[in-house]
Amino acid sequence: MTDNSKQIEKQKVRTASDTPAPALSGWPGGGVGRRSEAPTDVGAHHKDPSPESLLREFVSDCFADPLGFVLYAFPWDSGAFDMVELPEPWASRYGRKYGPDKWACEFLDRIGEEVRQRGFDGAHAVAPLQMAVTSGHGIGKSTVTAWLILWIASTRPNSRGVVTANTVSQLQTKTWAELAKWLKRCRTGHWFQITTSAGSMSLRHV
Predict the structure, then answer these.
(1) Which residues have a Cβ under 8 Å from the Cβ of 31 and sit 6 or more positions away?
(2) Residue 88 pLDDT > 90, yes or no?
(3) Which of 29-33, 111-115, 179-183 has the least mean pLDDT?
């Protein structure tokens, strides 16, 4: 995902809420420090048990836990896509049966570890995080990229970034198309607007 990038221009947008996200039935067990807990019932131990309040708490817990975000932000057990049994140690850690492939779990877990090591406090700059994946075609690199974009956008309101690819066509037909697909499935999808036309690819908070 390097080399070329195009300037983003504002254009008519399509809202992600056109396709309903899965209902919120739980959230991670309190984030990085308490990930071994299974999701709890909605409203338990909360003054405001509304779905939106619980969703915001869930997102806050996932600031340094991209794998936790991916596991709970998407309907892995709904039959909406191919089922993959979540390997250990993540199945026990998160209390989930289905999830990403092992390589994706390792990759997302490593990113979470790097984020926690840097200890970003929202004010003071930290060293950039650089990760790379060497692989063949079709293992899900575009999917993982989409998950990371949604994790960052959801856990860091008003954040800004640039997504690049080797060609504009690749960016539009692979990376951004995958982002649009997963945005529709994401519990935080209604927080965003996405544009997918060439020359105007963007993801914005609404």
Answers:
(1) 60, 61, 62, 63, 64, 65, 68
(2) yes
(3) 29-33
Tokens for 5? 């990038």
Angle between helices 51-61 and 141-155 (to 10 degrees): 110
- Contact 201/195 with Cβ under 8 angstroms? yes
Distances in whole angstroms, Cα of residue 142 to Cα of each of 40, 91, 146, 149, 176: 31, 23, 6, 11, 9
Query: Which residues, other chains included, contact 86 with Cβ-Cβ below 8 Å and sequence gap of 6+?
Result: 71, 76, 94, 96, 97, 98, 99, 100, 105
Q: Helix, strand or coil for residue 58?
A: helix
Listed residue (55, 65, 76) closest to 188, CA to CA:
55
Spatial distance between the Cα atoms of 18 and 194, rounded to a whole number of angstroms: 11
